[in-house]
Amino acid sequence: MNLDLIIVFFYSYILGSIPFGFVITRLFLKQDVRNIGSGNIGATNVLRTGSKFLAILTLLLDVAKGYFTVIVTTIYFNDFIYIASLICFIGHIYPVWLRFKGGKGVAAYLGILLGLSFSLSIIFIITWLIILFIFKYSSLSSILSSVLIFFYSLISNDFDLNSYLFVSVLVLIYTHKENIVRLRNRTENKIKF
Predict the structure, then answer these.
(1) Residue 192 pLDDT
(2) In this predicted structure, what is the pLDDT of residue 38?
């Protein structure tokens, strides 16, 4: 096996699997975020602790690990940029440190997108905010925004980027399967501003 690919796989997964939401709530609140709200370690659930600061910090750090993975890979292993992106994304969702039970992947996805395409990341953010403002559901915002980004990316005719975004959309829909059921049953929790 290619040594470069092994290195890329290792650091991409390790970076992606850092459970910032879990670490931050333990450090600052002495709580396990998995015992709060949805039990997820992402920024939306950290917000349910009552601390907007910690939720924002979690979001920024989760975005940063995706972005940093793309930047490092672009500099040193550019041929494996989409593999690194996918491995980091999967690492966030299935972190080894928490018995492979992590976040939904949205913040890491955004960080990766930011590294791959600044314009697509801006479109994602704007779309996410508009949908959230209208419907008040973080999960719905994430699903619809990622789907839109995939279709929008098809304009670029970049097969590798399109393939990565397609797989990411499928994974994001899968990680939100319980949210989708709650949305359908109108029992999904809304975000309170």
Answers:
(1) 73
(2) 79
CA distances from 121 to 44, 126, 191 (A): 19, 9, 22
Q: Is 191 inside any structural domain?
A: no
In a domain, 192, yes or no: no
On whether residue 140 sits in a domain, the answer given is yes
- pLDDT of the residue at 69: 98
38 closest CA partner among 191, 193, 153 = 191
Average pLDDT over residues 166-187: 95
- Enumerate the H helices of the chain as residue ranges: 3-16, 20-29, 43-47, 52-76, 81-93, 106-116, 118-135, 138-153, 159-175, 177-185
What domain range is 39 assigned to? 3-185
Q: At what angle do helices 3-16 and 52-76 cross, to 10 degrees?
A: 170
Report residue 1's pLDDT band, with 50, 70 and 90 as the boundaries.
Answer: low
Residue 108: strand, helix, or coil: helix
What percent of the chain clears pLDDT 90, i.e. is strictly above it? 77
126: amino acid identity, one letter? I
Residue with tokens 């992106």: 85
Cα–Cα distance, 137 to 47 (Å, whole number): 13
Domain tally, the chain: 1
